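Lab notebook: predicted structure, single chain.

Context: the supervisor wants predicted structures on file for every construct in the current expression panel, including those that have not yet been purified. This is the next one on the list. No modifications to the sequence; it matches the entry in the shared construct table.
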Amino acid sequence: MLDLSKGSRLDLIALEIANQHSPDTQLDLSCLRNVVRLMTWFGNMNDLADKVKIVVNRVGLGTGKSRPRRPRDDGQKIYWQLPNH
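Prediction complete. Output recorded below exactly as produced.
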C-alpha cells in the first residue's frame, strides 16, 4: 500500500508499476467529485483506470442507505464498502 502525494514523478512511476489501485472515498459530494477527477486522470494515462477498485468508507453515515450509488456513470463499480461503525 502506498500513500501518494499529488502527482510527483515518483508517484507516477509507482502508479504505473502497481497491479491495482484502491482509492477510498466517502459518499459526500466533495469526495465523489475527487474520485471522478482521479478516474478521469487515470483514464488519460496508459490504462491506469483498468487497475482501479474503488473502496467506499463509512457507508450508512447519516443516510440510512445500505448500498451507495455508483460514483460514475461510465460503469465504474464499487469494489468494497466499509460500514460506519
